[in-house]
Amino acid sequence: MEKTVTEAIHYRRSVRMYKDNVELDDAKVRQCLLNASLAPTSSNLQLWEFYHVTNSGKLATISKACFDQPAAKTAKQLVVVVTRKDLWKKRAKANLDFLQVSFADKPLDQYTQREKFALNYYKKLIPTLYTDFLGIIGGIKYCFFQIVGVFRPIYRQVRNSDMRIVAHKSAGLAAQNFMISMAAIGYDTCPMEGSDTLMIKKVLGLPRGAEINMVIGCGVRDEKGVYGPRFRVPFEDVYKKV
């Protein structure tokens, strides 16, 4: 029986050693990745990809790229979460095509104001935010938006580095969906940032514009897989009611 959301959150730990004699069901892991793809994502651009690694040779190579830390070396499977900011045009067009079909692809003068806003969001605003050239256009946009911001509230994170952060934030949300889904069915995970990302990109055949968000070790926890009791700073230190 699957755990509730709260149960899964409490069950989830960063497990660093997995049982050697317990295999994972590929279909169940894939379903958890499907759940990951339903995570919230900035502008619904879904600038992510999920690489479900089950091949023993690639597992060993990626483990090496993760410095053979136990969470990678003992993992039965690995999931590599990748950001694809370079695909923003393709994903924006997919959203635009979806909206036009949803709006019955009618003549422009028959669209409501809300529908026109949605279409213009992907036709004009997204290109404005994501278009850049060697950081120059982003710098110009940043200065312009800061000046406008003196007079009224405005979105200020418009540089190339800002949009990279946006993509990685969305990928992080998807990764959390995946790990909680895994916990719900009794599977364990460990998100890892420590890795040779260039080496992993080569193993997966990723293009230059792709970036590794994290590598997630997957398996069923060994008795020694959780290194200690969970520690969190007092909730009162991080909870601020305004």
CATH class group of one domain:
Alpha Beta
Indicate the proportion of strand residues.
5-15%
Number of strands: 4
* CATH superfamily heading of one domain: NADH Oxidase
* Mean model confidence by pLDDT: 95
How widely separated are the two ends?
Answer: 39 Å
- Compute the number of helices: 10
Structure classification:
alpha+beta
Radius of gyration: 21 Å
Low-confidence stretches: none
Give the biggest beta sheet: 4 strands, antiparallel
H/E element sequence? HHEHHEHHHHEHEH
| Overall 3D shape | globular
Strand order of the largest sheet: 1-2-4-3
CATH topology of one domain: NADH Oxidase
> What percent of residues adopt helix (DSSP H or I)?
40-55%
CATH architecture of one domain: 3-Layer(aba) Sandwich
Structure description:
48% of the residues lie in helices and 11% in strands. It has helices spanning 5-11, 26-36, 56-65, 70-73, 88-102, 113-130, 136-148, 160-184, 197-204, 235-238, and strands spanning 48-53, 77-83, 188-192, 211-219. It has a four-stranded antiparallel sheet, sandwiched between helices. The longest helix is centred in the C-terminal third of the chain and has 25 residues, at 160-184.
Q: How would you summarize this macromolecular structure in one to three sentences?
A:
This protein is α+β, with helices and mostly antiparallel strands and 242 residues long. It contains 10 helices and 4 strands. It has a domain at 5-86 and 171-224: 3-Layer(aba) Sandwich (NADH Oxidase), CATH 3.40.109.10.
